[in-house]
Amino acid sequence: MTESIKVDSPAQLQMSLAAAMTLGLRPGIFYRGATLSCINLLLTYEGGCAGNCAYCGLQRQRDGRFSEKSFIRVEWPSFPLEEIIARIGRHPERVDRVCISMVTHGRAVEDTLAVARSLQPLDAAVSILMAPTVMTRENIVTLKDTGAEIGSVAIDAATEELFDRYRGKTVKGPHEWERYWQCLADAVEVFGDSKAGCHLIVGLGETEREMANTIQRVYDLGANVHLFSFYPEEGSALADREACPPGQYRRLQLASYMIQNGFTSYGSISYDESGRIAGFGVDPEEEKIVIESGIPFMTSGCPGKDKLVSCTRPYGDGPPGDIRSYPFAPNMEDIAKIRMELTESYPGCSELEEGQ
Fold first, then answer.
1. CB under 8 Å to 93, separation ≥6 — which residues?
2. pLDDT single digits (tens) 319-356
3. Domain annotation covers residue 281
4. Is the peptide bond prior to 284 cis by the omega test (within 30 degrees of 0)?
5. Is 167 a domain residue?
6. Are 251 and 207 in contact (CB under 8 A)?
7. Is 177 left (phi over 0), alpha (psi -120 to 50) or beta?
8. Is the distance from CB of 46 to CB of 69 less than 8 angstroms?
9. What pLDDT was estimated at residue 355?
């Protein structure tokens, strides 16, 4: 097995540790038998990413070489593209989807296209996590023509003020709020409704009301929401910040699922004076059924061949002892824990407590 950290993309790509385990490129087993059928790839360059996002392990001002930096709190080992393709071809039963994550780099678009072309012979759908700062609408069209099925944008922050504070001018980053939203709108237009995704991170300082409003905006646009719970990345500018409170994340997971599936809307949800969700605006029995299904609390991401989530990102936003996005269906004990977390500082918790 060949491994190198000296060759740039497209010849060389980084791969999430979970994906490397799935393909047998790294040893290990997943806690509680979690599985991953999406191979997450990351463009890699000696010069790194031009972004300087305060919460990201790949931020420009973080010490260390780009290829040696952790991302989402784990290592991303580097492998030749040829070897990755060979491994996927050898284990087609394990892989439903491949996601190419771009970084903010001048060559990112052409190199993503090169990787996408190389993946065409494989029996796997392709998603692109796009880098709006270095892209045009025409680039998105070309990505689709090259075989990409889904295009996603990591807006991450719920408000323009937080975006600027952690991704834009305040941290001397190149990213602009309106450009990211325009890229998401272009992705919906090019790929089609529900074929575009938007990453949002809960716990960067927004209120639950602000995040619910942004979630509604994404769904109204025709895109899907992929939620993440903020968990501090060692070495990043926000390394000392507290992780998102579990209750805050659970309420927004539930709100996102209910908005997406037509149970409620931002305007039907009630909020207290601090912007915390106080009620979901649905029948208590219906709410109980949705919660007990466990589905709202599973990882939200691109689907696999069975239409369930392929990109389960096992323990990507919380360790096994503090699961935030479940990479499998929660069992009865998990649901009981989720109920407790939902009612954490929840003014309208009496109806939820009745179902415990």
1. none
2. 999 999 999 999 999 999 999 999 975 444 333 333 33
3. no
4. no
5. yes
6. no
7. alpha
8. no
9. 35
Q: Which residue has the higher pLDDT, 299 or 4?
A: 299
pTM of the model: 0.93
Residue showing tokens 């999430």: 16
Provide mean pLDDT across the span 132-160: 98
Range of the domain at 39: 12-243+302-314
pLDDT exceeds 60 at position 267: yes
Beta bridge partners of 39: 98
Classify residue 280 as exposed, middle or buried by CB count within 10 Å of its CB (0-12, 13-18, 19+): buried
Q: State residue 347's pLDDT score.
A: 41
Q: Is 312 exposed, middle or buried (0-12, 13-18, 19+ CB in 10 A)?
A: buried
In sequence order, the 6+-apart residues with CB closer than 8 A to the CB of 201 are 55, 156, 157, 228, 229, 230
Distances (CA, A) of 204 to 55, 158, 181, 229, 242: 9, 8, 18, 9, 10
Domain count, the chain: 1
Mean pLDDT, all residues of the chain: 92
Helix H or strand E segment including 191: helix 177-191
Q: What's the pLDDT score for residue 75?
A: 84
Strand (E) or helix (H) holding 97: strand 97-101
From residue 231, alpha-carbon distances to 55, 171, 189, 300 in Å are 9, 19, 32, 17
List, for residues 212-249, the tens digit of each pLDDT value: 999 999 999 999 999 999 999 888 899 999 999 999 99
Q: Identify the CATH number of the domain in which residue 225 sits.
A: 3.20.20.70
In the chain, the largest separation of any two C-alpha atoms, in whole Å, equals: 58
d(CA 322, CA 304): 26
- Establish if 218 belongs to a structural domain: yes
Residue 299: which of 214, 229, 206, 355 has the closest Cα?
229
Give strand pairing partners of 150: 127
CB 57 within 8 A of CB 72: yes
